[in-house]
Amino acid sequence: MRVLVVGSGGREHALAWRLARSSTVTELLAAPGNSGTAMVGTNLPVAETDIDGLVDTAVERSIDLVVVGPEVPLALGLSDRLAAAGVPCFGPSRAAARLESSKSFSRDVLDAAGVPGPEYRVFRSPSAALAYVEQRNRPLVVKADGLAAGKGVAMCANLEEAKTAIASCMQDRMFGAAGETVVIEEWLHGPEVSVFGFSDGENLSPVVAATDYKRVGNGDTGPNTGGMGSYGPPAFWDETLAEQIRSEIMLPVIREMASRGSAYRGALYCGLMLTDDGPRVLEFNCRFGDPETQAIMPRLVSNPVEAMIACATGSLTDVAPVEWSDDPVVAVVMVSGGYPGSYQTGLEIHGLDGNDADEEGSLVFHAGVRNAADGSGRLLTSGGRVLACVGRGDDVEGARDRAYRRAAQISFHGAYYRRDIADLRSGQPTTIR
Ligand code: AMP
Ligand code: GLY
């Protein structure tokens, strides 16, 4: 089969790497891909937002399956367009992708499905939002309703911060139209976990869990980032929790989407906080997570292509069950100095040869890495999040060791990574209190 992966980050390298290992895949393409996807397949110069270009490419090259990494092409209707052209797409329709692209829609679906989340209110007028936070006068979370590249969530410890967040979102239009509506939530506490499953619109595969270390500094300090590391299965994870989240949270949402005529087909990502009162949904996303994918793809034992096509065609129960290994995997993200603020790019990366799993049980997934244009074979940094060093092991400690040993072999000017990913002594990633 010919498979096309859409996107260009570490998540897409991990997806491409896993797909390329499937015996079903005869040709793997990535659009636009990165230096990592180029090692396991062929990159095509089509942007992930160029919906016409992607559909034309899929048709011209007789692609059997398109796997969409990021949310933006899905929110732009890539899956619908591919379906109309007769190309199976692993990724939901534009209407189903609203689970991620509109937080107010998502909260409405959760309510209808009877799934617990933080207490919330939706506002379309700044004055009403301001009156509400004044009346509440307690820690709150202010969220832009639409897609804001992961930056639309403001954790507001006090009234002043909440007022500032509302003003920058609704009046200064920091996120454009995405912030015209805001969702204001109660601020919950507890460890966070990302849970993923494959859905065909009606059924849901066994789920897999991974953590996401969002803050830049050791011990969960400093600003939020796109993710500094991940590991799974998390120390607090067990079969009972997995089954509870699958059957009481994720499946009811899939059923609710189906009953609204927007069957959800693709990877379903549920972001939860494990509070003292039980699991609470913070968000649903319409794709796999980054960097969680770098930690879960090495654990996918069953054939990914078969399951993904079954999701696209509504026949998940006809194929072998999706199977995840319990062997721990740890992913440590190496970033450019200064990230998530401003940083330099074009810096040479040393120690990055032999990417695939080696006898030490580690591998590297590229994110902001590109090949030097001079044909020298040098690899240069091209983004804030540069790569992820991934280790596998019989236990978390072993996997962690391998990931960090691999990281120690790689260098570029200003390279930085957290030292406490999957360090079980320092606790789980959580929000600041
Ligand atoms: P979201 O994009 O909605 O998942 O929010 C991003 C991050 O903000 C989450 O992973 C949490 O760390 C934090 N967050 C979001 N909503 C809440 C909430 N209601 N209480 C506490 N933390 C939250
Ligand atoms: N890891 C967070 C996300 O992918 O949205």
Through-space gap between termini: 49 Å
Shape: globular
Mean pLDDT across all amino acids: 93
Radius of gyration: 21 Å
Low-confidence blocks of residues: none
The description of the largest β-sheet is: 5 strands, parallel
The distinct ligands, each listed once, are: adenosine monophosphate, glycine
Q: Strand content of the residues, in percent?
A: 15-25%
Total number of helical segments?
A: 13
Structural class: alpha+beta
Helix percentage range: 25-40%
- Would you report the number of β strands? 22
How are strands sequenced across the largest beta sheet?
3-2-1-4-5
How is this structure best described in words?
It is a single chain. The chain is built from 13 helices and 22 strands. The chain is an alpha+beta fold and 433 residues long. Strands 3-2-1-4-5 form a 5-stranded parallel sheet. Strands 6-9-7-8 form a 4-stranded antiparallel sheet, sandwiched between helices. A hairpin with a 3-residue loop joins strand 12 (215-217) and strand 13. Helix 7 crosses helix 10 and helix 8 packs antiparallel against helix 9. It is globular. The chain starts with a strand and ends in a 24-residue tail after the last helix. Bound molecules: adenosine monophosphate and glycine. Residues 150, 212, 227, 285, 289-290, 292 line the site of glycine.
Write the layout of secondary structure elements.
Layout: E1 2-7, H1 10-20, E2 27-32, H2 37-40, E3 42-43, H3 51-60, E4 65-68, H4 71-75, H5 78-84, E5 89-90, H6 98-101, H7 103-113, E6 120-123, H8 126-136, E7 140-144, E8 153-156, H9 159-171, E9 182-186, E10 192-200, E11 208-210, E12 215-217, E13 221-224, E14 229-232, H10 239-259, E15 265-275, E16 278-285, H11 292-296, H12 304-313, E17 329-335, E18 348-349, E19 362-366, E20 369-371, E21 379-381, E22 385-392, H13 396-409
Parallel strand pairs: 1-2, 1-4, 2-3, 4-5
Antiparallel strand pairs: 6-9, 7-8, 7-9, 10-11, 10-15, 12-13, 14-17, 15-16, 17-22, 18-21, 19-22, 20-21
The protein binds adenosine monophosphate and glycine.
